[in-house]
Specification:
single chain, 2 domains, two-stranded antiparallel ribbon, 20% strand, alpha/beta, Spore Coat Polysaccharide Biosynthesis Protein SpsA, Chain A
């Protein structure tokens, strides 16, 4: 039977993570699927372990197939996923972090949510903290008119397996994408390398009238920032660069002018906070790297905006208002408290 879903896992020196992730993937039931692991030039024994696992699965007629795409260098999360998506032929593609362990029924719940409406281009999982599985890590992507994106419902009590609800976008750490949507709006932007590539894709999908639903029955346990440590300079640099890149590429012109003051104000505040409180210029340097690409960004923006079919009212229904400074501070403090407690 041809696979309905291709599950993609991108790995770089994550053997200890793969040993937990893949066994949880390979016991999924209810839908025919295959697994593609993209190894980004690991040197920790991951390629050898994957080859042995693939041979074991090939000897079992009931096991899903495991394909390995082995690269010589780390091309990043975005490009790694794209390699597998281009290789796959299934109608749906599920992306999964190597530090995430799906619970039984995860894949079937995502597919059921997607098949309920042909206009659904992506589905978000309920990601819970592996160390505190009763606490939500992400219930999809939320975004406001100041250009700030965050994980919905982070820190809340684990949700019941209620029917799916519509949200702005899906976290690519555990998401399902309809191939027709990816063919329409394009794959992950490889220039992002990693971080916020899913926000960029969610924006492009919304601009083309594709919906995203959140399936609380599709649960994944996530080792938060296990692949790239929380607060690392690497992560802060990419977040700084990619945040400006998303805004420059995706926010329509009238809204960019209308909310530009709030976007600049909050971004300056975040940069100054990092410089003064953390004595870290990584985010500033990342933003400067984005600004230096203004010519390329202008070309990318023209292409994305020229293909927009959705009215702003349809898109804005899923975008939060410009927050007050107190709201942003409470959100930031809440996140720190949640991460400190898991």
């Amino acid at each position: 039977m041809s696979p309905l879903v291709t599950v993609v896992v991108v790995n770089w020196n994550g053997l200890s993570l793969l040993r937990r992730c893949l066994p949880a993937v390979l016991v999924q039931r209810g839908v025919p699927y295959e697994v593609i692991v993209v190894d980004n030039g690991s040197h920790d024994g991951s390629p050898e372990w994957l080859q042995r696992l693939s041979a074991t699965l090939a000897a079992s007629p009931r096991a899903p197939s495991l394909r390995i795409l082995a690269g010589k260098q780390n091309v990043g999360f975005a490009a790694g996923n794209n390699l597998a998506i281009r290789e796959a032929e299934a109608p749906f593609v599920a992306t999964l972090n190597n530090d995430a362990m799906p619970e039984p029924g995860w894949l079937a719940a995502l597919v059921a949510a997607a098949e309920s409406d042909p206009g659904v281009g992506s589905c978000a999982s309920q990601m819970v903290f592996a160390s505190s599985p009763d606490v939500v890590n992400s219930a999809g992507i939320a975004i406001d008119r100041a250009g700030i994106a965050w994980d919905r419902e982070v820190g809340s009590v684990r949700h019941r397996p209620d029917p799916p609800t519509e949200v702005f976008g899906a976290s690519a750490g555990a998401a399902l994408y309809r191939r027709a949507m990816l063919e329409d709006v394009g794959l992950f932007a490889e220039s992002f390398f990693m971080y916020l590539e899913d926000v960029d894709l969610a924006w492009r999908a919304r601009l083309r009238h594709w919906k995203c639903t959140y399936a609380p029955a599709a649960v994944v346990r996530h080792l938060h920032s296990a692949s790239a440590q929380e607060g690392s300079r690497f992560k802060l640099w990419h977040l700084g660069r990619n945040k400006l890149t998303v805004i420059a590429r995706c926010l329509p012109g009238p809204q960019l002018l209308r909310y530009g003051g709030a976007i600049i104000g909050y971004d300056l505040a975040a940069t100054l906070l990092a410089l003064t409180a953390r004595h870290d210029s990584s985010g500033l340097r990342g933003r400067w790297a984005a600004l230096r690409r203004w010519r390329e960004l202008a070309i990318e923006r023209r292409h994305i905006q020229s293909r927009r079919t959705a009215a702003w009212d349809d898109v804005s229904a899923w975008i939060e208002p410009v927050p007050t400074p107190a709201m942003v501070w409470r959100r930031f403090r809440h996140l720190r408290e949640v991460l400190a407690g898991v």
